[in-house]
Each structure stands twice: as C-alpha cells, then as structure tokens.
Amino acid sequence: MNSFEKLGFYVFLIMLVPVFVTLSFAGNDSQEGFKKRIEVAFQSKDKKTAIGALFYKDNLNEEMLAMVNGSVASLMKKKDIKISFEPVMKGIPLVFVIDGYEYGPNVDVAGYVNFDNPDGSSSKVPYGQASDGRYYFSTTIKKLVNKDAKQDKQIQVVVIGIAESPIKFKGWCKILHSDGKVQSHELGGTGSQTLIIRGQEIKTCEVENYSKRGDLSVSLIVGEDEIFNNRINEPETRLSYP
C-alpha cells in the first residue's frame, strides 16, 4: 500500500467513523431542513455542484479537497435512494494521527446520514453543524503536529481465547503515536479479536481472561516484527507486555 492509499484509507475511516452524537438541533438549521437540502441536491440538474455544496469545505487544503471531490463523485452515482438519520457509536476516536499529521472533522459531528439503495445496500456519511448554524456533511482537516515524526508502522494486536465455549476477555494496549502522545486502545470481546492500527511503538499491553477457563494467547506485531507471543492456561488469567 503506497502513501496515498494509506492516506485515503484513514481519511475514509475518519469520514465514516464519528464519535459523539447529540440530537438537539439548535441553531439556524434542523435535521428535516438538512434532509430537504439533500433531496433537492440529488434532483438538481447540476448534481455535482449541488451535492458538493452539502460538504463543509472551510480550512481544507488541496489534498483534502480532492478527497471531497471523490466523495461527491461517489454520491452522484446513487439513484432512487431513501435518506434517514442515525446516531453514532460512542467511544470511537474521531481524530487520527498518521506520520506526524493529525486528521479530524471540520464540523461538530452530530450523526450519520444514511443512504439506503433499492437493492438493499446502504452507505452513510457523517454530518454536523458548522459555525454558520447549518448542517453539512463532515470533511477532514489535515494538520501537521510533528514535523520530525518518523513514518508510522502497522501495529497488530491479536487476542485468541480457546475453550469448549468462547471465552470473554478484556484489556488494553498503550501505543505511542507520531504526535508524541501515548494513547490507550481498548480490547475486549468473546473468542478472538484483531486490532490493526498505525503508530510508532507499543508501550504496554494487558489482557485478562474474564471467563477464568480455557487458554488465552496474545501476539503483538510491529511492522514485520513479532515482538511478543505468549499463551496462558487456567488457572492463570492475565497476560501482560512487557
């Protein structure tokens, strides 16, 4: 994956994974008003310009504007769509740091706009309220936060629980990112989990077997190097790195 593809992947994540929702539509716009603006844009003769105007473009550089144009081109292909709104999951980070650059939304994100297609498929775009009081599709700001940052590596955390029935586990990994900050990433689930993220290095990790039965294994991979691989059996319940 080249650097442009990596950038596109993470900007895609940012544009589709907002973190907080509020359904109090204060200000000069409303959810219903925004929905009508979207419907009118899709019926416009100049669909490209009309849909493009739904994106908030303040503070975007040429690179990010190119990403927005790609999103507009994708939306222009949709026909006979149904529009709805939904809240977003809490606890998912909205801001990402990659190779010393911070990527985040340029509006206060409020939720998702769902585009339901006649074939049953759907797609969603985050939206939020801008400083002018109107709702727009959220776009992404790129900001240099560490000019001396080394290129990030792909970090993988693989947790596997083995028992007659799936075991429950919970934990965290603290990862150093290219802005010089250490961020804690939560782990948890039933059976197994693979966390893939970009960062500089893994500082610490801890995973606990809450089912207190079966086996629990953890593998940590940074770039192409597996830096940790361990497995415990009952009655042991906790794995730690380093």
Fold and architecture overview:
With 242 residues, this protein is of the alpha+beta class. It has 2 domains: 3-144, no CATH class; 153-233, Immunoglobulin-like. It contains 4 helices and 15 strands. The chain has helices spanning 3-16, 31-42, 47-52, 62-76; strands at 82-86, 96-98, 101-105, 108-116, 122-129, 135-137, 140-144, 153-162, 168-176, 182-190, 192-199, 201-209, 215-222, 225-233, 238-241. It has a 4-stranded antiparallel sheet, with helices on one face. A hairpin with a 5-residue loop joins strand 5 and strand 6 (135-137). The protein is elongated.
Short key terms for the protein model shown above:
Immunoglobulin-like, 242 residues, alpha+beta, 2 domains
Topology:
Blueprint: H1 3-16, H2 31-42, H3 47-52, H4 62-76, E1 82-86, E2 96-98, E3 101-105, E4 108-116, E5 122-129, E6 135-137, E7 140-144, E8 153-162, E9 168-176, E10 182-190, E11 192-199, E12 201-209, E13 215-222, E14 225-233, E15 238-241
- SS field, number of helical segments: 4
**Helical residue percent?**
10-25%
Distance between the termini: 30 Å
Q: What is the approximate shape?
A: elongated
The number of distinct β-strands equals 15
Strand order of the largest sheet: 1-4-5-6
* Beta-strand content estimate: 35-45%
Class of secondary structure makeup: alpha+beta
Mean pLDDT: 86
Report the C-alpha radius of gyration, rounded: 21 Å
Number of separate structural domains: 2
Question: Brief overview, please?
Answer:
This protein is α+β, with helices and mostly antiparallel strands and 242 residues long. It has four helices and 15 strands. Strands 1-4-5-6 form a four-stranded antiparallel beta sheet, with helices on one face. Strands 11-8-13-14 form a four-stranded antiparallel beta sheet, with no helix packed on it. A four-stranded antiparallel beta sheet has the order 10-9-12-15, with no helix packed on it.
